[in-house]
Amino acid sequence: MSNADALVGHLVDGRYEVVRKLARGGMATVYLANDLRLTRTVALKIMHDNLGSDADFVSRFDREARSAARLSHPNVVAVFDQGTDAGRPYIVMEYVEGSTLRHVISREAPMPPQRALDLMLPIAAAVAAAHEAGIIHRDLKPENVLLSVRGQLKVADFGLARAITAHTATAQGMLIGTVSYIAPELVTHGRADARCDVYALGVVLYEMLTGAKPHTGDTPIQVAYSHVHNDLRAPSTAAPEQWRNTRQAIPDYLDALVLAAAARQPADRPADASVLLDHLRQARAALESGITSDPALAARMQETSLDPNTQLTAQVPVIGVPADVQRTTTMRFTPSTPLSPGQPGATDGMPYFDRPVISPAAVPLAQRQVKRRRRGLITLIVFLVITALLGASSWYWFSGRFTTTPDFGNMTQAEAQALATKNGLSIKVATDYSEDVPVGQVISTDPKAGDQILHGGEVIVVISKGPERYPVPSLVGRSVEDARLALEANHLTLGKTTEVYDDSAPAGQVITASLPADRMVKRDTPVDLKVSKGPAPVKIVSYVGKPFTDAQTYYQTAGLIVQRGEDAFSDKVPAGSVVSQDPKKGNVEKNSTITFVVSKGPEFTVVPPVRGLSGEAATDKLVSLGFKVSVQRQGWFGNLALGTKPGEGKKAKTGSEIILVIG
């Protein structure tokens, strides 16, 4: 079904701008809307046009909003506002982006016990808060439990609740609820209390554990009959066989919890969701402790904490049941309360009046047998009459009022209008994109072809706008965040981001995109980006002992600033080669500085004149210039310097040995 709708773009009550349709129910349609006053996104529930003129429905809608607004709990969808726009009452609710518990069950059920309890605990906590506030939900089902994108569970549609202390609509002959999760007492006499919600939670937990609904049938009537007359099987007997005798097995105390919550008799169930919540917590604690069987805990799961003075209404069979198992509907049924004398249908044979007590011994046996046969005949006749009336009523409410929605597939708008008029229906046109249906032809309808629709009802016809395509924006030169926002603005998504070195683009800037700008692509197409990490770092290579000119050429080409420090003498490194460098190793960014010390070769000193000096004075003079001195004597008694080798005026390496001749 398309999300397109004629109300999209409409401003409700001068405050709420309708963005798109989210869902359509039996009484109202829910839209995504913008609250222009508080600048926030909300869910807007607007009553259907055909109900806005019904005073009873309007009154019920108003009661729903006031009732729901009393709840404040992290696991309850909040109600913010209510009002009327163009004769259509509306409720403004918290918008929860995500999916529903129905999607989780479809993907994961049957679930391991731990997973099922983790999901059920916040749901039960929400319903317990409602019960403490004196509110019952009456329509609990997986579709009404929302799962946000952050993983938070929230129970929705407490707008369908009634105050426990108030007169419910079912007391007037209306049955609200989804037949797969409806409590038996709602089917039989239509009176709701907190235990109806407990029953629905028990059925939902059974479905999570087993992957199947406990009560099924070919028709809604058969499903409702099963609720009234059949007990649940223990979930462990319906769970996957391969789970048995494993950690995934359903323990006896969890079986007992589900069977107690979904017991046919209200008196056998936990009194409200607070009691059920306590049982759920005990079960989870036992599971976390690795307990696979605990008869004592299973017995505690049967505790109800219900006031023994609470009176329950007797249950009687019912024939009318909602027509759609998966949709909340409204059903007429015959009240089981006594009729006053003179009312249509009142009879002395109905078992609602006190009878005088007569001792059986005071009446002859034959007379008593005749009376018993007469009472049996009267009872049979009354039963047959009621059955016939209920059958006729059910036919009208579930068949007679309806016609079948024709097939508008691939028709033009004009053709669809003509077919609708021919069948006594009207159409409302909406538009949407389609990959398969040509522009101007019908994509889908609501209701769908073959579904029931009231005579004279309105069919929403969605006309194709052709394939949905959007241009790829120009992304090169943007930051990654700017590119992401540009893609989202064009209904596209950011794909894989790869970082690479680039000498021309600063770090964080988009270099290339996987799709060229202005190419038309499908909605939500991912676009991959290559993003600059800036210039690549330069690896430091040692040039010690190598010519400085080679080092200078290499590092200048690599993008570093080459600095020559003060040259130094070196006995080991040839002149013009590198003595040392800083840094010595590692990686540095481009435009960093590297400093070199270049060799001047060995250091030479001129040998000074020492002739005529004493041996000690000559030695001191040579040592002061950095020479090492070796004495060579000529004769044994002289102590004057006669000369040096090498001789005076000659150059010798600083630190080399000079021979001093003494004589």
Structural notes for this entry:
This protein has 663 residues and is α+β, with helices and mostly antiparallel strands. The chain has 6 domains: 11-94, Phosphorylase Kinase, domain 1, CATH 3.30.200.20; 99-306 and 314-332, Orthogonal Bundle (Transferase(Phosphotransferase), domain 1); 403-464, Trypsin Inhibitor V, Chain A; 469-532, Trypsin Inhibitor V, Chain A; 538-598, Trypsin Inhibitor V, Chain A (2-Layer Sandwich); 604-662, 2-Layer Sandwich (Trypsin Inhibitor V, Chain A). It is 29% helix and 23% strand. A 6-stranded antiparallel β-sheet has the order 1-2-3-4-6-5. A 3-stranded antiparallel β-sheet has the order 7-9-10. β3 (28-35) and β4 form a beta hairpin. α4 (113-132) packs antiparallel against α10. The radius of gyration is 46 Å and the shape is elongated. The N and C termini lie far apart (123 Å).
Topology diagram in text:
Elements (H helix, E strand, L loop, with lengths): L10 E2 L3 E9 L3 E8 L4 E8 L1 H4 L2 H15 L9 E7 L2 E7 L3 E3 H8 L4 H20 L2 E2 L8 E4 L4 E3 L6 E2 L10 E4 L6 H5 L5 H17 L9 H10 L5 H4 L13 H10 L11 H16 L6 H6 L28 E4 L32 H36 L1 E3 L8 H10 L3 E7 L9 E5 L5 E3 L3 E7 L4 E3 L8 H10 L3 E8 L9 E4 L6 E3 L3 E7 L5 E2 L8 H11 L2 E4 L13 E5 L4 E2 L4 E6 L5 E3 L8 H10 L3 E6 L7 E5 L5 E3 L3 E6 L1
Parallel strand pairs: 15-18, 20-23, 25-28, 30-33
Antiparallel strand pairs: 1-2, 2-3, 3-4, 4-6, 5-6, 7-9, 8-11, 9-10, 12-13, 14-17, 16-18, 19-22, 21-23, 24-27, 26-28, 29-32, 31-33
